[in-house]
């Protein structure tokens, strides 16, 4: 029995999700591994799919970023791994564009706000917007934007505790009451805040970051962390949590205005107003500095009535502009405008997924002209493991979906790693094709997938990949290594034979004498692969076990056994393969499924 290719685990994953196009962010696979075909799981070579890569070649960011798009064969015409037109942006491997005939897809991993200067993030976003506009104006393409934008858009896209209070505005409301309104008419918490804020501001002048040691109670291993301290009535008081660096501590308690320099205009632009502080931090300051406790339910009510997203944050303004000025539509919010708590990313280090304290920063955004082809799918509500138990738009339903109805367990803080999930919990990610979210397990990533369902009428299925196109070739570095037969067959050789002349050109020939029977071509894999061992077809791949690739939907995390998704135990049988490798005809009225 021939052993399955290591990449078959990815193929099985895509089959179960019924994915025609699959966008991955943070693939983190070096260009050199793809060119030498030494990438983990042979993940560039998935049967039935073409893969397109934009790898990070910036020497200062080696081992970071990377985006990959898998497309079913016949559904892609070309690709561009450097679509932004700027080496310092394209070299970081954050965007790959694929052409699908009627439309193009930009698969992106936008720089995070804390990792690099905001000026770089905005330079990337502005270049991306220009690239999308160029596809519309010059090539008459419709555009789909998919990936990790590292932007949370509206109030419903973040946990309530992350909503901000405009402290200066709230204090001003108390100090400058309109005629006829009494102080007693104001909510008590506003009066408390206005009275306490001068003391809080004075206390923050004593800020100091100090190193602290933490100990793992299971291993007794010690770690150096950092915390922010202030002086309250002559005593040292800790603020916030344990951070990895002094810079992180300072960032969380820097409430001054911030600016960035626009790369295009060189203009100094306001990025955040002074004293825009999240509800949870304000509550902590009120308790530790002013001695006034706001209970959690009270904080929630304050957030619901007065919490807001920053109105001046440049990335959020950019997202507003592509939605309102460029005519794009957030597919998720189009179908689920009232859904609460539907996040795509959580802080796994602090176990935030299990409390559903996250943010929605991953999107599928489409041009308005494509919206008529976008389908909700054969689902009555958002994916959730407890239909009928909660309102599908509620936070309770979102928590249920996020944790697979409690089957995904939090990581013990004393060590041990992510708790191994049951097969039932792992399989909860699979379901009907739809536009929405796919709740992949925590062992895959700190993100989950988003999905987009398109009607067949806007999709092309008979496209021929332009493999000789320069930009397309650059997006497929794994195809640079040719097979043995193509290597020897590339040259054109004319030889004299008894009874005639034989000219060999590639794999064709003409001869006056009868040619020998054609030999079956053998690939490089055929030459190097060891013979399959009987009974080994379902065994684990060593590449899979040793791979340390980290992606938003990591290839190695997709299957820790050969076909049993994210299960590491050897006692589980692989999923059955019916052995049918023939291409299935696509029904005329079928629906295509895209997700990132």
TrEMBL record:
The record marks 150 as: Transition state stabilizer. It holds the Pfam family Exo_endo_phos. Probably binds two magnesium or manganese ions per subunit. Residues 561-589 are annotated as: Disordered. One of its GO terms (biological process) is base-excision repair. It comes from the Eukaryota. Residues 9-166 form the Endonuclease/exonuclease/phosphatase domain. Keywords: Hydrolase, Magnesium, Manganese, Metal-binding. GO terms for cellular component: nucleus. Mg(2+) binds at residues 26, 148, 150. PROSITE patterns: AP_NUCLEASE_F1_1 (PS00726), AP_NUCLEASE_F1_4 (PS51435). One of its GO terms (molecular function) is DNA binding. Its cofactor is Mg(2+); Mn(2+). The record marks 362 as: Important for catalytic activity. PANTHER family: AP ENDONUCLEASE, DNA-(APURINIC OR APYRIMIDINIC SITE) ENDONUCLEASE 2. This is Exodeoxyribonuclease III. It comes from Nitzschia inconspicua. The lineage of its organism: Eukaryota, Sar, Stramenopiles, Ochrophyta, Bacillariophyta.
